[in-house]
Amino acid sequence: MAPSRDLVRRASRSRLRRKKGAIERLYTAPPEGSVVVCLDEMGPESAKSFPGQRLVHPRPAPQAVASESPPDAAPAAPESDGTAGRRNAERAKQEIDYGRRGKGYIFGAFRPATGEALTHPYPSRSAANWADFLGRAEAWIPAEVERVYAVVDNLNAHRAVDVLLFALAFARWEFVFQPKYAAYLNLIEPWWKVLRSLALKGRRFETWEEVCRAVDEATAYWNKHCHPFLWGRRRRHRPRRRPGIAAVPGVSGLAG
């Protein structure tokens, strides 16, 4: 039998509540003179067509078709159901695109208190690329900040020797590793959806450089219109569903 620490999911996760509480306190009441930064990677992303919402061009009106027909052609008979001249919408469809035109990762740093973000593309999630991005994040955070709490996941590259050397060189950094199977504790996860909507949704990219340029433009746009991400904000109220078809016949208490 495998030891309990090697199981995918343990029945008892006593340390989860303690780690979660520490991250929540950083979000809600960070120490004075400190900054909380959420770090993660998005990807792999590739140069391809991303689904989105587009206007489906309607079919040309019968008058337009008649005007384009040869002069000696017979005129089209009017429709008897009164739909003459109407435009029938086409069926929405998308071209198959496997996107084998270059790929990579987008490294990101997100400050929930202000909503500011930093992104940079890399070809892989190696420890060297991660250490390079940490250097960019160090230059991005104001110098007057005394302490930086970085919320990260448990990827092997996040615990590499390069990261240890970075922490020794920049003593104000402290890495807070989130518990396993608890990605919701990293507030950069919902921001990735915003970035994908701004940069990738409904667009087609021919090269990886086009993807990088779109992400840079979307990040710059977001930083001009950013807003903070507050931990513990209540979700939009949803009305309680009343029992309908599934109600037991003859029992009036369930329908009230």
Describe the 3D structure:
30% of the residues lie in helices and 15% in strands. The chain is an alpha/beta fold. The protein has a domain at 31-49 and 98-224: Nucleotidyltransferase, domain 5, CATH 3.30.420.10. The relative contact order is 0.18. The model is unreliable at 4-11 (pLDDT under 50).
Order of helices and strands: HEHEEHEHEHHH
Largest sheet: 5 strands, mixed
What is the CATH domain class of one domain? Alpha Beta
Mean pLDDT: 80
Q: Which outline best applies?
A: globular
Distance between the termini: 52 Å
Number of helices: 7
Sequence stretches where pLDDT stays below 50 over 5 or more residues: 4-11
CATH topology of one domain: Nucleotidyltransferase, domain 5
Strand content: 5-15%
Helix % is 25-40%
Number of strands: 5
Q: Which class do the helix and strand fractions yield? A: alpha/beta
Strand order of the largest sheet: 3-2-1-4-5
Name the CATH homologous superfamily of one domain.
Ribonuclease H-like superfamily/Ribonuclease H
- Radius of gyration from the alpha-carbon trace, in angstroms: 27 Å
What is the annotated CATH architecture of one domain?
2-Layer Sandwich
